[in-house]
Write a structure and sequence with these properties.
The complex is a heterodimer. By secondary structure, chain A is of the alpha+beta class. Chain A has 7 helices and 4 strands. By secondary structure, chain B is an all-alpha fold. The chains are: A alpha+beta, B mainly alpha. At the A-B interface, α6 and α7 of A face α2, α4 and α6 of B. Chain A: This is OmpA family protein.
Amino acid sequence: MTIHGFRYCLTLALLLAAGTAGAQQLSDKQLIASLGQAAQAAPIVDVGLLVQEVNANVGKGVATLPNWSQLANLAQLAVEIDFENDSTAIEPASYRTIGLIADALHDPRLRHYKFLVVGHTNATGKAEHNLELSMKRADAIMVALTTTFSVPANHLIAIGVGQEMPLDATNPKAAANRRVQLINLGLAN
Amino acid sequence: MTNRLGIFGGAILMASLALTGLGRAQTISYADAVTVLAKDCGADIKKHCRGLNLGNNEIRNCLEQNQAKVSPACTSTLASVVASIQMRLEAQASVFKVCAGRAKQLCKGVVGEEHILQCLIKTERLDGEKCNAAITNAGWR
């Protein structure tokens, strides 16, 4: 199931990166189906430790580190959200993707769960800058969801991982590495 | 072409929001709402609201403050989109309260929001106008 979930995430990310019609291929049903597969023995994620690990490994990658590697075991989905160049402003072309996420997070099947929003960049530019930008962009997505779409603020946590966990590790500058991961952290309190 | 599409999108939105007949949603999904916003206001956002975000009402405030410069299609779409999002949020927040009585009657022993909702969708004919309207406007049918 884990492997299946991860493959699904890969496929979707690739579909979304493939062309202009990409955003229309994602639906809230897909989001609900992928994110709703809460694993029975889901590992407890300590977001503070994730931040510590990434801060201590800028430019070195985090995929194999103890806390980051655990995330692969959780129900998740990767989507493409475009921003203005070197800015946290979400491009209007990506508003639909934000709206789809809002539709999914309000659905009765998902609305009691807590989600991690992880921002990723590709490896163009400086690693430190990429980390900071990815953090601010993940935050902008969270703010859009919690204000414009009233998703409860305690149901979302935003973090950035910069270029440290590429989808395509052999090609770190690939556009497919720029993505946002949504990860189900289990029931919100 | 883009502009024509934009106006067309806006017209669909206005029409769907204007239809208040029984069983017809007065709201559209959040995704559809912001898609129409991007279509009808994308150019104005690029021109007048660079660097501003969808969150914290930044885009909405910017478009309203620049109303004199913003296209009429965008201004009217913005109002409908804001209204639709607000109405859907209220409907989603109210479904299980508005339908609580019917759920107790019609869905005895059913536990969990997801299952209660599935039950209520099946008992639509008996759910009453308010409960049905809430489920429909929540986009959960």
